[in-house]
Write a structure and sequence with these properties.
43% of the residues are buried. The protein is α/β, with parallel strands linked by helices. Helix 3 packs across helix 4 and helix 5 runs parallel beside helix 8. The structure holds flavin-adenine dinucleotide (FAD). Flavin-adenine dinucleotide binds next to helix 6, helix 7, strand 14 and helix 8.
Length: 323
């Protein structure tokens, strides 16, 4: 039987993305081991145990928050003796950062943004979109273990198993005498951005603004529309790079991949790199002055108009409909 290890990050929670990650693992009909580096809440551990055959809690001092070198060393230390065929990680920034490095440490191969996984004989085949979502590629990973990060919400969660898996605590010694290579990274300051209650990757409604808004102030107006709709805010790279909104709002090839029920794109053109991030949105709607903007070729509903002429009335109409 194949052996799949799901690696979570410090402070692991059980949310829809985590559920989808285990959904991907369980579809491989393999033995599933979850690894949590550092401590985690009892509720999260219990939910993860309902998805895995075994949960390994790595008992290591001072790892309540993500630290790249230490997290990598813990995952390497726990994964090595398990000799997995496949190691799966989520699509968050930390997991994306660690995936190729963990593959290197384990002597395996690596790829990211997986939307489909299947074994072909001994090897794992990964399906992922390429050319801005215009085509799908199937990539076979021939060096074991295949270490892969999975696109958020690409896999549905599986129901909890009737018999939860066992939970083991494993002491991990990261001292230099244990031979682990840990760079002396010193964290000078930790700046935590305030984010909404729901991660962008898990949001069901998203209102996203682009360069056409012209500055940070119109984003405040857009926020009021988003709050009426119960939506999360997002933006194009142009708006993020301009410093109008925080970088973690960015959606696209080099930003977040989202899969909401509704994505409202306001004053953004729909460049291929942006579209890559919204390929899994169920419904796309757009407001843009340019009827030839590429976003109109990808949306189900569109308004060719200056956003300033429609944003306010749209909010009022929605507010009266929802009240
Ligand atoms: P623009 O393309 O300038 O579009 C602005 C739009 O606003 C226009 O369509 C205009 O008609 C409309 N507009 C103007 N005024 C109004 C108004 N008053 N009312 C209504 N509409 C109006 N981009 C991303 O978004 N995400 C990524 O992850 C990303 N990754 C990239 C990776 C690489 C390697 C590269 C090369 C580029 C990447 N980009 C990414 C950048 C991308 O190519 C585009 O430059 C960017 O998406 C453009 O942002 P925008 O649509 O906001 O701006």
């Amino acid at each position: 039987m194949k052996n799949v290890v799901v690696c979570l990050m410090p402070g692991a929670k059980f949310d829809r993305s985590t559920g989808g990650l285990f959904g991907a693992a369980r579809r491989l009909n393999a033995r599933v081991t979850a690894v949590i580096p550092g401590p985690a809440e009892d509720d999260a551990v219990a939910s993860i145990a309902e998805q895995a055959d075994t949960v390994i809690l790595a008992d290591v001092a001072d790892l309540s928050e993500y630290q790249p070198e230490r997290t990598l060393a813990v995952l390497q230390s726990v994964c090595e003796p398990l000799q997995p065929d496949v190691v799966l990680l989520a699509g968050d920034t930390y997991s994306q950062e660690l995936t190729p490095r963990l593959a290197g440490r384990l002597g395996g191969s690596s790829i990211g943004d997986a939307q489909g996984l299947m074994f072909e004989g001994e090897n794992l085949r990964v399906t992922r979109s390429v050319y801005g979502g215009k085509a799908m590629a199937v990539v076979e990973l021939r060096r074991s273990p295949a270490v892969v990060w999975v696109r958020a919400r690409s896999f549905d969660p599986e129901p909890p198993r009737e018999t939860p898996g066992t939970v083991e605590t494993r002491a991990v010694d990261l001292s230099e005498s244990a031979g682990r290579h840990i760079n002396a990274t010193e964290i000078i300051e930790r700046h935590v951005e305030t984010t909404g209650d729901v991660r962008l990757e898990d949001a069901t409604v998203i209102v996203s603004g682009g360069r056409g808004l012209g500055g940070p102030e119109p984003f405040e107006e857009l926020k009021r529309l988003a709050s009426t709709m119960g939506a999360q805010m997002a933006a194009s790279r142009a708006a993020c790079d301009a410093g109008w909104v925080p970088p973690h709002w960015q959606v696209g090839q080099t930003g977040k991949k989202v899969a909401p029920e509704l994505y409202l794109a306001v004053a953004l053109s729909g460049a291929s790199q942006h579209l890559m991030g919204i390929a899994d949105a169920k419904v796309i709607a757009a407001i843009n002055t340019d009827e030839d903007a590429p976003i109109f070729r990808h949306c189900q509903f569109g308004i060719v108009e200056d956003y300033r002429n429609v944003g306010g009335s749209l909010r009022e109409k929605l507010a009266s409909l929802l009240s």
